[in-house]
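#structure-requests
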Amino acid sequence: MEHVLVIGGGIAGVSTAYLLSKQGFRVTVVDKCMDVGCETSFLNGGLLCPSLSYPWSNTSAIPVALQSAFANDKNRQAIRLNPALISSALAWRWMGSFAWNMAPWKVASNHVASYNLCEYSLKCMKEEKDQGVLFTALGSLQVFGIEASALARKSVMDRMKNSKTEILNWLEIKQLVPVIETKVQYGVLSHGDTSGDVFKFTTSLKRLCDPDKVRFLPNTSIEGLEIKNKTILHAVTSTGSKMHADKYVVATGNGAPPLAVLAGDVLLSLPVKGYSVHVPVSEASLMYNVCDDIGKFYCSPVPGPAVRLSAFAEIGYSDTTPHPDRGTALIEMANDRFEPGFLLKEQAVVHACCRPQTPDDLPVIGPSANIKNLWYVTTSTSSFPNMN
């Protein structure tokens, strides 16, 4: 039985281990944290939405970035760029690739690839529906101030196969989401979306793994690779111990680029710090995700009753300490969009995490260009690779 070492214990690493074990591999999962799902897979936005697969690398990113740069309230900036990136050659290469992917034909092809992956991932998660995800939302409502913006977004979404959308006016939105605030005039309803708890899914999937085939090693960090003849012989831990396997999978999110360098590969990925807030609500009346994709604000219902608020993209920041003012601003943004008293904001829990962001908004899934027995599964998208 071939042995695979999976480096990383988030949703990507655990789902990889789970499916590889079902295919007959013996798997060891190592993670630097005390348990699985403790970083990006922890308290995230909980959105499971093919309708939100439109790439960030499109021309609308330019006005959003400019609005953020000149925003009066800096705590509400949708996008921040770490000034330290100016001296990073990798960051300049990333930004050049981001600009290249704004070309209309690149946006279109990236959108198709992202949408198909989202649909496939959601299908896989629903097949494992007993694993703690708890699909809560009945769909997603993207909100707009003017009808032209809503029609433009619906036109883009309707290019995708199996996409089911409809335009709603204010009265129809109010019937669908009674607690929504009156500034919203138009919406695009997507029926194929839902929401769920990725952390619960990850930890439940770990418990489902056959202990005779899958072993989990927490508090274990991989710092080096011993390579000979384009083959990894051992992975070296931070304590200097060596771990041998027949095949290796890097599923460490933001930790993947440094390991890729050791293998002679370049992964164009930057850490992006985002915020999420778990807020109990006064009534279980929100049954749809509410999304302002232009303003980069998202709200998804989760069991409780509660909601997960998520927003902000701080590009190039790797510190996961939540800034109190940013958390407060996110709650205030939610208050602007919902009726008074709906959010029990005094019970809010603020969390920050860093996700890996590629220039084309697609995950890196596949073999190394240089090493025969190395694969990458590094992504903020919930993906279920099949390693044959």
